[in-house]
UniProtKB/TrEMBL annotation:
Residues 1-34 form the signal peptide. SUPFAM superfamilies: Six-hairpin glycosidases. Pfam families: Glyco_hydro_9, PLAC8. This is Endoglucanase. It catalyses: Endohydrolysis of (1->4)-beta-D-glucosidic linkages in cellulose, lichenin and cereal beta-D-glucans. Residues 522-531 have a biased composition (Polar residues). Coiled coil: none annotated.
Length: 702
C-alpha cells in the first residue's frame, strides 16, 4: 500500500480509482468460488462428530467443552449401551439414523479415504465410535437395541447431556417385534465398516463382518417395520415411513461388497423386484435408501464387473435425471438462490445426501467414461460434479445471505443453533447442574450460543433462501449427524480436485491401505483424482474430451438417442412372432408389458386388459403406445419415425414386433417372462466363478 500513498499524495479520487483497480485485480486473481477452504471445512465437519459423542470421552477428545455423559445407558436392561452418537440437538441415541450415519462415514473412507489426507484418521475414528456402539447394541443374537432415552421427556427438557436426568429407557427389537429397517441398516453399517478396518485392524474387521452377517439374517428372517411395535417411542421422530424393503437390499448390497459372497448377490438379484429397488428413487436419507442402493450397485455395473445388476444402473440413471435442475416437472425443487429444496423440514439433509450421490455417481461414470442419458438431454460426469459443487458452495456461503451454514466456518455462520450442549454454558464454566426447565432461559435467550459446535451444518434456509438463526426454528437451526456424514465426501472431492497437490502430498502415506474390495473402482489413482481421464482417447488434454469440464457449459448436453435394434418393417425377420402378433397382438403386447414393468404386471393381465380395451374401444394403440414410451425411456431409444402413439395407431403390429425384437436383442427370453429371465440370470450368476471370499468372515459369531 505504501507506493500508492507515495505516488498519489492528496489526490483522493485517483487514489480511490487505484484502490478499486487493485481490488478488482485481487478479485480476478482470487475468484470468489475458489475462495472456499474445503480442507478447513472438511476438518470441521469431521470435528462435529466429536461434539455428538455420548459416553466416556477419550483423552484425545478435541471439542473440549463436552464432557462424559450417559454413562449408565443400558443398565436398566442389564446391558452396556454407553457410547454412540446423539443424533442432533437432543440427547437421545436413535439407532436408525446412527446406523445410517455410520454407513455413510464408512462409505466415505472406502471410496475416498486415499484423498482425505490428514483427516483420514479422524474419519476412521468417527466410524469406530459408531461401530463400537453398534456392536454393543447387537451383542445378543436376534436382538437389536435400537434406542436409548425417552424422546418425549428429553424433548420437554433443555439440558446438557452431562446433566441429563430424564428417562434413559432402552428400546429393542427381537423375533416377536421385528425391525428389518433398523436391523438392515445396522447390518449395512457393520459391513461397510468391516471394509474400512480390513487392513487397519483385521480382527476388528472380522468381528464387524460376522456381526453384520448375523444381524442381516435376523433382519431378513423376521421381516417387519420397527415402528409397528415401537411406535410410541420412535414416531414421529424416526418412524419408518418408507418401509423396510430398501434396508434389506441396502444391507445385502453392503454385505456383498464386504464379503463378496455369492449369496448376497443372488439375494439382490432375486429380491430386486420384490423389495422394489426401483421405487421412489429420488430420495436418499436415513429412511429411504433407494437411490443410494442404485448408485452403490451401479459402481460394479460401470466397472463392467456385474452386468446382472444392469437394471440398478438404469434406476440410478433415472434418479440422476429426476434431480437435474431446469426440468419442466422437476421432482426436486431449487430455491431462487440455487439450493436443492425438498419440503418437510431439515432440508439440508437432502442437499448433502443428494449431492453426495451426484458426486459419487459422477465419479463412477467418469471412470467408465459414460454419461447419463436423460429423456431430452444427457448429463456428463463434469456436469454432475458442478451441480454438487454448487450445493457445497451454497452451504459454505455462496448464497443470497452470504452466510455459511457450517458453524465455525467463514465470517458469518449460525449463532443460535438448536443444540442443547452448544447453547447451555459448558460444565467447565458452570459446573453446577442445570435442571430440565432451568435450561429454558438459555433456549429462549437472544444471545449467541456460548459453545461452538464447530463443523455442525444446520437444517438451513427455507425455500426462499431466508434463515431465522433462532433456536425455536429447529427445522432451520438444528444440526444432525446425517447432514454432515454425506457432506464429508463432498468436501473431500472438492478439496482434492481444487488442490491436486494435496492428493500427492498424502498419497504415499496411504498407499499400503487396501480399502476397496477386489472389484472396486480404483478411485483417485491419478494425481487428479476426480476428473480421471485414464479411459479417454486423449488423456493429455481435457479440452478434447467430448464431455470435459471446460467445454460443457453448466447446461445439459443434447442427448444422443440409441437407435432401435431393427427397423420398423423388419417383421418378417422373425416370422413366428410376426404371425403370433397378427393373430393375437395381446400375446406379444403382454410379453412386452411384463418386461417393461419389470414383472410388476403379468403378461396375462396386460394381455387381457389389452383385449378388453380392443373390444370396448377398438383402439388398443392408445394403451400400447404408453409402453413404447416407457420402454424408450428405459433404454434411451430414439422416437422414430414419429410420435409413439401415432406410430402405434398407424401400424400396431409393426410397432409391437419391433419392441419385441428389441427386448430380445437386449438378452430377454420373451417366452419365459420377467421372473423367468431373472431366474435364468441367477443360474448364470451361480455358474460364473466368484472371487475368493474372505474365509474368516464366513464363520458365524457365537
Ligand atoms: C422464509 O422465511 C422468511 C423469513 O422468515 C419469510 O418471510 C418467508 O415467507 C419464508 N418463505 C417461505 C416459502 O416459507
Amino acid at each position: 500500500m505504501a507506493p500508492i500513498v507515495l505516488c498519489l499524495p492528496g489526490n483522493v479520487s485517483a487514489f480511490r480509482v487505484t484502490l478499486a483497480l487493485l481490488l478488482l485485480l485481487s478479485l480476478l486473481l482470487h475468484p470468489i468460488s475458489a475462495g472456499h477452504d474445503y480442507h478447513d471445512a472438511l476438518r470441521k465437519s469431521i470435528l462435529f462428530f466429536e461434539g455428538q459423542r455420548s459416553g466416556k470421552l477419550p483423552p484425545d477428545q478435541r471439542l473440549k467443552w463436552r464432557r462424559d455423559s450417559a454413562l449408565h445407558d443400558g443398565s436398566t436392561a442389564g446391558v452396556d449401551l454407553t457410547g454412540g452418537y446423539y443424533d442432533a440437538g437432543d440427547n437421545i441415541k436413535f439407532g436408525f439414523p446412527m446406523a445410517f450415519t455410520t454407513t455413510l462415514l464408512a462409505w466415505s473412507v472406502i471410496d475416498f479415504g486415499r484423498t482425505m489426507g490428514s483427516e483420514l484418521k479422524n474419519t476412521v475414528r468417527a466410524v469406530k465410535w459408531g461401530t463400537d456402539y453398534l456392536l454393543k447394541a447387537t451383542a445378543v443374537p436376534d436382538v437389536v437395541f435400537v434406542q436409548v432415552g425417552d424422546p418425549y421427556s428429553d424433548h420437554n427438557c433443555w439440558e446438557r447431556p452431562e446433566d441429563m436426568d430424564t428417562s434413559r429407557a432402552v428400546y429393542k427389537i427381537d423375533k416377536n417385534h421385528p425391525g428389518s429397517d433398523v436391523a438392515g441398516e445396522t447390518a449395512a453399517a457393520l459391513a461397510a465398516a468391516s471394509i474400512v478396518f480390513r487392513s487397519r485392524d483385521p480382527a476388528y474387521s472380522r468381528l464387524l463382518l460376522n456381526r453384520a452377517v448375523r444381524v442381516f439374517e435376523f433382519a431378513d428372517r423376521h421381516r417387519g417395520a420397527y415402528s409397528a411395535s415401537l411406535r410410541s417411542a420412535v414416531c414421529p421422530f424416526y418412524c419408518d415411513v418408507n418401509g423396510f424393503q430398501d434396508e434389506l437390499l441396502w444391507g445385502a448390497a453392503w454385505l456383498h461388497k464386504a464379503s463378496r459372497r455369492r449369496v448376497y448377490r443372488e439375494y439382490i438379484v432375486r429380491n430386486e423386484v420384490v423389495l422394489r429397488a426401483g421405487d421412489t428413487i429420488n430420495e436418499f436419507g436415513w429412511d429411504n435408501k433407494h437411490a443410494g442402493i442404485n448408485v452403490l450397485i451401479s459402481k460394479e455395473v460401470l466397472m463392467g464387473k456385474a452386468d446382472y445388476f444392469h437394471s440398478f444402473k438404469q434406476n440410478a440413471d433415472e434418479f440422476i435425471c429426476s434431480i437435474l435442475p431446469g426440468l419442466s416437472h422437476p421432482q426436486v425443487q431449487y430455491s431462487p438462490g440455487g439450493l436443492i429444496f425438498k419440503p418437510g423440514g431439515s432440508n439440508m439433509q437432502h442437499v448433502t445426501s443428494l449431492s453426495f450421490l451426484l458426486l459419487a455417481y459422477s465419479n463412477y461414470l467418469s471412470h467408465a467414461n459414460k454419461v447419463v442419458p436423460c429423456v431430452q438431454t444427457s448429463a456428463s460426469p463434469a456436469f454432475l460434479k458442478q451441480l454438487a459443487k454448487r450445493q457445497v458452495d451454497y452451504i459454505l456461503g455462496d448464497n443470497p445471505l452470504m452466510m455459511s451454514y457450517m458453524v465455525g466456518y467463514g465470517a458469518r455462520y449460525p449463532q443460535r443453533i438448536h443444540h442443547r450442549g452448544s447453547s447451555l454454558p459448558s460444565v467447565q464454566v458452570h459446573p453446577a447442574h442445570i435442571g430440565c426447565k432451568a435450561g429454558s432461559r438459555y433456549f429462549l435467550s437472544p444471545n449467541p450460543n456460548p459453545n461452538l459446535l464447530v463443523g455442525a451444518v444446520v437444517g438451513g434456509p427455507n425455500s426462499s433462501d431466508a434463515f431465522p438463526d433462532s433456536r425455536p426454528f429447529f427445522q432451520e437451526s438444528e444440526p444432525t449427524t446425517y447432514i454432515n456424514a454425506p457432506l464429508i465426501i463432498l468436501l473431500i472431492i472438492m478439496y482434492s480436485s481444487s488442490n491436486p497437490n494435496g492428493y500427492n502430498k498424502y498419497a504415499s502415506e496411504q498407499l499400503h491401505h487396501h480399502d476397496g474390495p477386489p472389484t472396486g473402482i480404483p478411485v483417485s489413482s491419478s494425481t487428479e483424482p476426480y476428473f480421471s481421464t485414464s479411459h479417454d482417447q486423449d488423456s493429455h488434454s481435457h479440452s478434447h474430451h467430448p464431455y470435459s469440464h471446460s467445454q460443457v457449459p453448466p447446461h445439459l448436453r443434447p442427448r444422443a438417442p440409441v437407435p432401435w435394434s431393427s427397423g420398423l418393417c423388419d417383421c418378417f425377420s422373425d416370422p413366428k412372432n410376426c404371425c403370433i402378433t397378427c393373430w393375437c397382438p395381446c400375446i406379444t403386447f403382454g410379453q412386452i408389458a411384463e418386461i417393461v414393468d419389470k414383472g410388476s404386471t403379468s403378461c396375462g393381465a396386460s394381455g387381457a386388459l389389452y383385449t378388453l380395451i380392443t373390444c370396448v374401444t377398438g383402439c388398443p394403440c392408445f394403451y400400447s403406445c404408453f409402453y413404447r414410451s416407457k420402454m424408450r425411456q428405459q433404454y434411451a431409444l430414439e422416437e422414430s419415425p414419429c410420435n409413439d402413439c401415432l406410430l402405434h395407431c398407424f401400424c400396431e403390429f409393426c410397432a409391437l414386433c419391433q419392441e419385441y425384437r428389441h427386448l430380445q436383442s437386449r438378452g430377454f427370453d420373451m417366452a419365459i417372462g420377467w421372473h423367468g429371465n431373472i431366474e435364468e440370470r441367477n443360474r448364470e450368476v451361480a455358474m460364473t466363478p466368484v472371487p475368493p471370499v474372505v474365509e474368516q468372515g464366513m464363520s458365524r459369531d457365537k
